[in-house]
Structures are given as structure tokens and as C-alpha cells.
């Protein structure tokens, strides 16, 4: 499977709320960096972070995707259903895929915009 296909499958699992399947595509020692927040290390740290987010549905819309070698870049709108409403943020994602798993996952977004929508 190509690096781009791995990332597309990962996003598909996120959108289907298949967290275990999505996490299975992360390397055990993944580096997960939500750039305005502290960097997380390891699949279990990523699992803990995702588990504490207060959403019951997700719709990550990929506007553009580009891959070169093991690096995949995504321009997305990440939508989350929280309570009775959808919140969304624009995201630039950078993924590195090694041996069929995501070894680095970086998302760049405006944290203040996200937090204001949660309030």
C-alpha cells in the first residue's frame, strides 16, 4: 500500500469512528504533534488524547492531498460533532509513513479558533 493510501485509510477510519482500526495504522512509537500543543510519543499516548476529545462523530474533509516518497500532506477541514452541533477547523496535516504505518503525524491548526467553538 502506498503512503497516500495508508493516510486515506487512516482518515476513513477516523470518519467511521473506527478508532482501533485508525490507531492500528500508527507505528508503536509514532510521534503525534498537534503543533500548537505538546508533542505526544507512542500509539497509546495518541489513543489517550483522542479518547478525551468530546465528540461523537467526525468528518475530516480532505480538500487536497499530495505525496512524495513516504511523506503525505493533507489540506483538510476537520469537523467534529459535539453535543448538538458541528465544530470545524482548517488543518494542514503532514504524515510520514514507514513500513505501512504512520510514524509521524503533524497537524497545524488554530487552537484558539477550536477552543472558542468548544466554549
Features:
119 residues; globular; alpha+beta; 4 helices; single chain; Nuclear Transport Factor 2, Chain: A
Characterization of the model:
- A hairpin with a 2-residue loop joins strand 5 (85-98) and strand 6.
- The chain is globular.
- It has 119 residues and is α+β, with helices and mostly antiparallel strands.
- It has a single domain (3-116), classed as Nuclear Transport Factor 2, Chain: A.
- The protein has a six-stranded mixed beta sheet with strand order 2-1-6-5-4-3.
- 30% of the residues lie in helices and 48% in strands.
- The model has no long low-confidence stretch (mean pLDDT 96).
What is the compact description of this entry?
The chain is of the alpha+beta class. It is built from four helices and six strands, in the order ααββαββββα.
Sheet with most strands: 6 strands, mixed
CATH topology: Nuclear Transport Factor 2, Chain: A
Report low-confidence residues grouped into runs of 5 or more: none
Task: Evaluate the radius of gyration.
Answer: 13 Å
In sequence order, what are the helices and strands, one letter per element?
HHEEHEEEEH
Structural class: alpha+beta
Query: What's the architecture in CATH terms?
Result: Roll
Number of alpha- plus pi-helical segments: 4
- State the shape: globular
- N- to C-terminal separation? 40 Å
Percent strand equals over 45%
Domain Limonene-1,2-epoxide hydrolase: 4-118
Protein name: Nuclear transport factor 2 family protein
InterPro entries: LEH, NTF2-like_dom_sf
